[in-house]
Write a structure and sequence with these properties.
The chain is of the alpha/beta class. About 50% of the residues lie in helices and about 15% in strands. The strands form two sheets. An eight-stranded mixed β-sheet has the order 1-8-7-3-4-5-6-2. It has an eight-stranded parallel β-barrel with strand order 9-10-11-12-13-14-15-16, surrounded by six helices. It is globular.
């Protein structure tokens, strides 16, 4: 029987294949009472399993090779959990006090921790409960005598590239094996858009649908599946007509992707010879090779806060300097835009929150990004010095997030001057004329953009936040996700006003929110005057294709007309015509 499941499409593309159910160690462990004389033995058994799980993660870390940079960080998080007394010590107490077997003690403690994580308001922190479960599963497998092995069953002679992994949940460490196995796709019952698994799927460009709730229970091993990662749809046992339709779409997508590779070295300019720069957004130094492989002409946004999430301490100057230097050297003379920490809101240094005591009920409107950096001058000086020192190795631009007030820019420039003076006193070499830019991601900044243009060397429009703040919707809340609309006339007006005002005074503007990487919006943005786009590396060639086929002189009058429209349906129609 054919049926369809709907989940969260977290990584685009189409996969067609057979289901391979991934068997995880069950968390339904035996509940046993042990004799007092066996207690120490049971604790020793527990300790051995923890050690074995840790060493398994070490081995995985060592074999990450050219896996996405995020993966190593995720394995570190799991190792950290294994070392945390809440998991490494508490179950020992439970074994001793309640005289239960190690598996049962561990599951009790896991349930306690999961309940704690569920109380976090912050979705990123809430989702860390899945990490706790994954780590506990790993230890239980050791206790049961069958250490974690990713999917080996169920392939029944089917080629791996035709297999689709169906799991209740996948840990990042499980996903690493996908590199070796080349599975077509994966789908899971749990996991949100910001889960580690979703982030990995996107950076590995594998179609994936998460949050299907009960796919593991409804799908049987070997059943035919179609995964539509764009729409978040899973079709089980499709009929021949649907299968043929998707086969055709899949072939078209593959053909287009292989054709696009030829564009890598082509000069990025429109038909009417207007030059356009396509830059990459990165989170870690390890993202530089994929950015270069996609033909990125620079780094338009280095989200530095990702370097240091989920660690227990603040990174010192040298550690930061090494990370920035690695990116600049890796980009070999191409410009690198380093954004100062955008910490606070959904991104804090530690699970319990380094700045957690100050996080109020509305963190996205709270002391975040530059507000936090200015309130923590030591932290800010450390970062500014590290960035300046790295500027010795190549062209660096400094980008400031979340600016709304002129005095924030003035204070930032004064802090930069202070960092420069301290380096001068040490006779350190750095770029004295480092360019300083501001993110336009608060409506106030877009409306009063002249304040910014007078003080800064360049601007970068952060549409992810600009949309969030303009439309008053929390970008991480799936309940209002449908209201997140880049084509809302108010959003378009703010972008158009920023671009036009900057053009008048000759200040360059880039756009580094998700809109920049959406090929459906490329012609619109070009027609609005955008010339610098910064996006996830996997989108660069798709956008480049649109740029090469665009003629700005022809686009401009159409876009002008579109910007005068207010009715969403009319805007959508006009965009369709523009892209036709
Ligand atoms: C944005 O807000 O558009 C942006 C690029 O920054 P981030 O997504 O890191 O908030
Ligand atoms: Mg932002």
């Amino acid at each position: 029987m054919s049926f369809t499941l709907h989940g969260l499409g977290v990584s685009g593309g189409i996969a067609i294949g057979r289901a391979m159910l991934m068997s995880h160690a069950t968390l339904e462990v035996a509940h046993l009472t042990i004799a007092p004389r066996m207690v120490e033995k049971e604790i020793a058994r527990f300790d051995t399993a923890i050690l074995a799980a840790k060493s398994e993660l070490e081995t995985m870390k060592g074999s990450t090779g050219n896996a996405p940079a995020e993966l190593g960080a995720f394995i570190d998080i799991h190792r950290m959990f294994l070392e945390d007394p809440e998991l490494a010590e508490k179950p020992r107490e439970i074994i001793r006090e309640r005289r239960c077997n190690a598996e049962w003690a561990l599951v009790q403690q896991m349930e306690h921790l999961v309940a704690q994580f569920e109380q976090f308001d912050d979705p990123y922190l809430r989702e860390r409960k899945f990490d706790v479960v994954q780590v506990v599963e790993r230890v239980i497998k050791e206790l049961l005598g069958h250490p974690a092995r990713t999917v080996t069953k169920g392939n029944k002679g089917i080629k791996e590239e035709n297999l689709i992994v169906v799991a209740h949940d996948l840990s990042p460490a499980d996903v690493i094996n996908f590199k070796e196995h080349r599975f077509a796709s994966f789908i899971t019952d749990v996991g949100g858009a910001t889960s580690h698994t979703a982030i990995l799927a996107r950076s590995m460009a594998i179609p994936a649908v998460l949050g299907l709730e009960n796919a593991r229970g409804l799908i049987r091993d070997g059943e035919a599946l179609i995964i539509d990662g764009n729409r978040g749809v899973v079709i089980v046992n499709p009929d021949l007509r649907v299968l043929e339709e998707y086969q055709l779409r899949k072939e078209q997508i593959e053909l287009e992707a292989s054709k696009l590779k030829r564009l890598k070295t082509a000069k990025t300019e429109t038909i009417d010879e207007i030059e356009v720069a396509l830059h990459a957004n990165i989170e870690l130094p390890g993202d530089v090779p994929p950015a270069l492989a996609a033909g990125a002409e620079g780094i338009g946004l280095f989200r530095t806060e990702f370097l240091f999430l989920n660690r227990g301490d603040m990174p010192d100057e040298n550690e930061q300097f090494e990370a920035y230097k690695k990116v600049v050297k890796g980009m070999a003379g191409r410009p690198v835009t380093i954004r100062t920490f955008d910490l606070g809101a959904d991104k804090d240094l530690r699970p319990e929150g380094t700045f957690g005591d100050r996080v109020k009920t509305n963190p996205a409107l709270g002391r975040r990004a530059i507000r936090l950096s200015l309130a923590e001058p030591r932290m800010f000086q450390t970062q500014l010095r590290a960035i300046l020192r790295a500027s010795k190795y190549g062209p660096i631009k400094l980008l400031i997030p979340m600016l709304a007030h002129a005095h924030e820019i003035d204070q930032t420039l004064a802090a930069l001057e202070q960092a420069k003076a301290s380096l001068r006193a040490e006779k350190a070499v750095f770029d004295e004329h480092i360019q300083v830019g501001g993110m336009i991601e608060i409506p106030a900044a877009a409306l009063a953009v002249n304040l910014f243009l007078r003080r800064l060397n360049f601007l970068s429009i952060g549409t992810n936040d600009l949309i969030q703040y303009t439309l008053a919707i929390d970008r991480s809340d799936e309940q209002v996700a449908s209201l997140y609309d880049p084509l809302h006339p108010a959003v378009l007006m703010l972008i158009a006003h920023t671009l036009a005002s900057a053009e008048k005074v000759g200040i360059p503007v880039s756009l580094c929110g998700e809109m920049a990487g959406d090929p459906k919006l490329t012609r619109l943005l070009l027609g609005m005057g955008l010339r610098i786009f910064s996006m996830h590396p996997s989108q660069i060639l798709k956008v480049k294709d649109r740029v090469l086929k665009a003629d700005c002189s022809e686009l401009v009058p159409h876009v002008r007309r579109l910007l005068r429209l207010e009715e969403p349906v009319k805007i959508a129609e006009a965009l369709e015509k523009l892209n036709a």
